[in-house]
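Hi there,

I know you've been waiting on this one. I reran it after we fixed the sequence typo, so this is the corrected version. Both the input and the resulting structure follow.
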Amino acid sequence: MLETKYKPIIVTGVYGAGKTEFCINYSVDYAARIKREVLLADMDVMNPYFRSRDKAEWLKERNVRIIGNLTGNTGNQDTPAISGEATVAVMRGDPLVVDLAGDAPGLRVLSLFKEFLKPGGYEFWVVVNAFRPGCRTVDDVITFVRMAQSYSGLQATALVANSHLLSETTEEHILHGLSITHGAAKQLGIPIVHTLVCTDFISPKIPNALTFEKTVMRADWLL
């Protein structure tokens, strides 16, 4: 019997869009659904403040293993030294989520394994928070997606709606962000694969909801 091969899921977004929070929540949900370990590649080499590898132990308890740096997967340096583990995972078809920075240097990290990413053989998701600079309008989102495609050499396959204002978030904020994300998705011809929302906002108005009870990456004083 052949072992199931999984498409790598590569996630990017503008600074502050919440892609690391999404990657963590999605990876935990993914591992629970497929009932096996998921690899989360910490390949955001640009943001030293919110790093998935800082939650390595918490994630390990939930069957998610951090890969992507050469320092024992700990948070003892500002940016991860990229290892070859992600390339091996792509080649083997392991369940893999890649947390990738959303600027030119960060996107070029994909050169480590881009040759193994064939059309139809990967997911490339862009996280949208309509309250962050660079994705406040439909045109902003489209411009960013095209830039990400240009620098990465990949085609975006879906958008992730993640519009919020931390503890000030209301359902109206989420629906406004969904409107922006939907407008961009329609013009780009790709779907909205998930909407990341707190369980307080579960609603039929919010499609493909990926829910969380409390943010993982932000301390209480930031909420």
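Quick highlight: The longest strand covers residues 192-198.

Best,
R. S.
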